[in-house]
Amino acid sequence: MSAKARFYDEMFAAPGHIRPGYKAFSDWLHRRPEEELAQKRAEADWLFRRVGITFAVYGDKEGSERLIPFDTIPRIIPAAEWEMVSRGLKQRALALNLFLHDIYHEQHILNAGVIPAEQVLTNQDYQLAMQGLTLPNKVYSHIAGIDLVRDHAGEYFVLEDNLRTPSGVSYMLENRKMMMRLFPELFAAHAVAPVEHYPDLLLETLRDAAPAGVHDPVVVVLTPGRYNSAYFEHAFLAQQMGVELVEGPDLFVKDGFVSLRTTAGPQRVDVIYRRIDDAYLDPLAFNADSVLGVPGLLSVYRAGRVSITNAVGTGVADDKSIYPYVPDMIRFYLTEEPILNNVPTWQLRKPDECEHVLANLSELVVKEVHGSGGYGMLVGPAASKVEIAAYRERILANPSEFIAQPTLALSTCPTFVEAGIAPRHIDLRPFVLSGREVRMVPGGLTRVALKDGSLVVNSSQGGGTKDTWVLESALPASGGHA
Amino acid sequence: MLSRTAGCIYWMSRHMERAENIARVLDVSSQMALMPGGLAREQIMAPLDITGMREAFVASGVKATADEILLFFALNPNNPTSIYSCLRQARENGHVVRGKITAEMWETLNATWLEISGMTREKLKRMGFSRFLEWVKERSHLFRGATFGTLQRNDAFHFSRLGTFLERSDNTARILLVKAPAFSPSEERDTAAVDYYQWASLLRSLSAFETYRDIYRDSIVPVQVAEMLLLRDDLPRSLHACMNEITQTLESIQGNSGKEAKLLAAKVHARLHYAQIEEVIEEGLQKYLQDFISDTHEIGARIQRAYLESV
After folding, report:
1. What is the pLDDT of residue A373?
2. In chain A, which residue's Cα lies nearest the Cα of B305?
């Protein structure tokens, strides 16, 4: 009882006391026979498998494709709450894009001493090639996935910004489709804000990014290929937007432009929504061994004759060593107070903070500055003495490679597990689109840690997903026409 | 259409057609091997000559029994012309372009592959060769039917058709080529019994036996067989019919690429369209077929250059 109360539960304000947003759902859930719900879960599993909504797992012996577990209990966000969260996300995305433009141009924020210059300029993801290059609408991170968590009081915090090639939006869309198929009656009883127009917003955002003077831009999605863990999503988004899904060798540079190899000859490409990392984009400019990229792409990009989304060099702004400064960016560029707060973060490159962290490893979460996907982190309370000792050695070898945060009391949401329904920890990844304006669809992808007590929600670490409902405040009159 | 996409669709269809053709060749040779007389041996070896795989088979060191040769063409993953290899290639190419073909096409490819990848020598023997070969033909019919019945008539459809008919024309020519030495201008009209069965099985392998009866209302005369399989344009596996499809399909593909492929296809087509069988036999059937095979190979190479790896 006391253990459970340490966390904010999305459905229950207290045992037996249901929050208003979940009232109708909870009533519905208790009226449904257990067998029927189990059958619906099996149906969802079968449908996902048949359509092939899978992800490849790195490091898996069999290199197999796995299904991301899908939970049929939605995560519900009241409209007023989402209104605040979405304002906070817009503010953050604006500030991060202003920051990226600034550090590749005048560097006001560094000159003002708000962020130590060496933190930015010596960062491995700071791309010298981007200096002085002005992008359409001055947007760098056109698609940002900003991960949110809630503390024990229910307050939202930003856990990390993903400004390079954030993935997961296809699951957001497929989860909604699945819920509507399995439980249409729930959507009749709830005013769930739609998300299905995401591919349209994405296409508009990508078209907005086209080089100046191009009126009907040709957009393509660039994938590393079908062995990539997110290949399903690349193919899905290309198909939903009605644009070509291409691999590096499908593109070539000639006469100062990027073209597509087609059966009718070369076709000019204006916007590349790339889902491969900076290092592999252009073997002439970056990793010379890359066979995924397009030789000469960067020179065309620098000449302003093709747009790359997200831009080259955004990684410097979502690095965990820069993360602690995002609230300062918001104050500096927008002269506003941050609407969404950061999780308190210790930077181990600072000796006093490092000392504090080393003394409290068993209570903290320690992450690699350049890591992602839940790999290579230490969750102190869940780690053994041996694991902590080994991690301590890694920190001491190079403290500036790490940051630490308090072990977050991530909120919980009721979830189907083997023993029935039980609370499991969740986070939220909304997708923020920056074109001529900043837009998003309500909600995002809710990830859930399926193991009891686990705080790691990454799909690569056994996490699952839920449909995310932002409830409009009032239900429209049934069957009414305006 | 993206060149890579067109290439995958083209090779997907070529490999499916090739699997069917190999099944047809094996069907005939396995039946002929049951005939009495010294020719049985020659018949068993025929698939090796038709596909040009005799050396590879000899190099594999396996004894040249009827069963081993059939297995070499049914299941051997190291034989690029085996049914197993063709169905795998068809499925792999289809997988890459899953979003550009219909779900029915993909599911046919995938289910076919799953079935043959689970096939062993023992299972195949229990099933029986002729049933297995029937199954391969049925899967090819099903795939072609799914393509015809569901695929939008755009360049994806056109490249699929190109793959099918280039492969088919090559196959018909190769089957005939093996019999070509039997033709000579001085051909007598009395055909020995063994010969009769050979010609009849050749016609059956191309699903042309009934058509022959329908057209000629005559016993089997080699010159007429050659005329039908080369020059008739209403028999779906004849060279003329295949070239009709290829020239028309090339014209339907959008854009101005492929002039060289179109030129050669038109020449080959004209040679069939305006030819008399007597002239062909006079000049030598063997040479005619060899030229045809190298011309269709060249058409394939020009299609590859113009559309599938264009710059």
Report:
1. 62
2. A263
Instruction: Give the DSSP H/E element, type plus range, for residue A101.
Output: helix A79-103
Type of residue at B246: I
Domain membership flag for residue A216: yes
How far apart are the CA of B255 and the nearest CA of chain A, in angstroms?
A: 4
Give the CATH number of the domain where residue A279 resides.
3.40.50.11290
Is pLDDT of A226 > 90?
no
A143 and A160 in contact (C-beta within 8 Å)?
Answer: no
pLDDT digits (tens, 9 = 90+) for A254-291: 999 999 999 998 999 999 999 999 999 999 888 888 88
Whose tokens are 């991301």? That residue is A68
Is the CA virtual torsion B134, B136, B140, B145 positive or negative? Answer: positive
**Nearest C-alpha neighbor of A68 from the set A86, A54, A57:** A54
* Token pair of A264 as six digits: 């009718």
pLDDT confidence tier of residue A54, bands split at 50, 70 and 90: low
Q: What is the mean pLDDT of residues A229-250?
A: 92
Gap between the Cα atoms of B2 and B269, Å rounded: 28
Specify the pairing of strand A364-368 against strand A402-406. antiparallel
Best CA proximity match to A332, nearest among A69, A146, A82, A91: A91
Decide if A269 is inside a domain: yes
ipTM score:
0.79
Does A261 touch chain B if contact means CB atoms closer than 8 Å? Answer: yes
Q: How far apart are CA B63 and CA A18, in angstroms?
A: 77
Residue A245 in any domain: the answer is: yes
Q: Tell me, what's the pLDDT at A453?
A: 83
Whats the size of chain B, residue-wise? 311
Compute CA distances A208 → A99, A305, B34, whole Å.
Answer: 20, 14, 71
For position B180, what pLDDT does the model report? 76
Residue A59 has pLDDT above 50, yes or no: no
Beta bridge partner(s), residue A245: A221
- What is d(CA A293, CA A287) in angstroms, rounded to the nearest whole number? 9
Tokens of B278: 């007597």
CA distance B254 to chain A (A): 6
How many CA atoms lie less than 13 Å away from B216 in the CB half-sphere? 19
CA distance readout (Å), A274 to A309, A310, B70, B75? 6, 7, 48, 41
Residue A161: closest CA among A56, A78, A91? A91
pLDDT tens digits for A146-171?
Answer: 999 999 999 999 999 999 999 999 99
Residue A372 has pLDDT above 70, yes or no: no
Chain A partners within 8 Å of B254 (Cβ): 263-264
- Chain A residue numbers with beta carbons less than 8 Å from the beta carbon of B308 are 263
The helix-helix angle for B66-74 and B3-32 (nearest 10°) equals 160
Locus of tokens 């010379």: A288
Domain span at residue A261? 212-305
Contact state of A261 with B1 under an 8 Å Cβ cutoff = no
Q: Is the peptide bond before A310 cis (omega within 30 degrees of 0)?
A: yes
Name the residue among A302, A313, A307 with its Cα closest to residue A132.
A302
Which residue in B1, B2, B159, B161 has the most chain A C-beta atoms within 10 A of its own C-beta, making it the best mutation to test that interface? B2
Spell out, as residue ranges, where chain B has pLDDT lower than 50.
Answer: 185, 187, 189-190
Of residues A235, A252, A264, nearest to B254 (C-beta): A264
Q: Report the domain count for chain A.
A: 1
Compute the CA torsion angle A415, A417, A420, A424 (nearest 10 deg): -40
Q: Which residues lie closer than 8 Å to B142 by C-beta, 6 or more apart?
A: B108
Q: What is the DSSP letter of B307?
A: I
Is A35 inside a domain boundary? no
Choose among B261, B206, B237: nearest CA to B10.
Answer: B261
How many CB atoms are located within 10 Å of the residue A318 CB? Answer: 22
From the CA of A167, how many Å to the nearest CA of chain B?
A: 20
- Give the contacts of A405 (CB within 8 A, at least 6 positions apart): A343, A344, A345, A346, A364, A365, A367
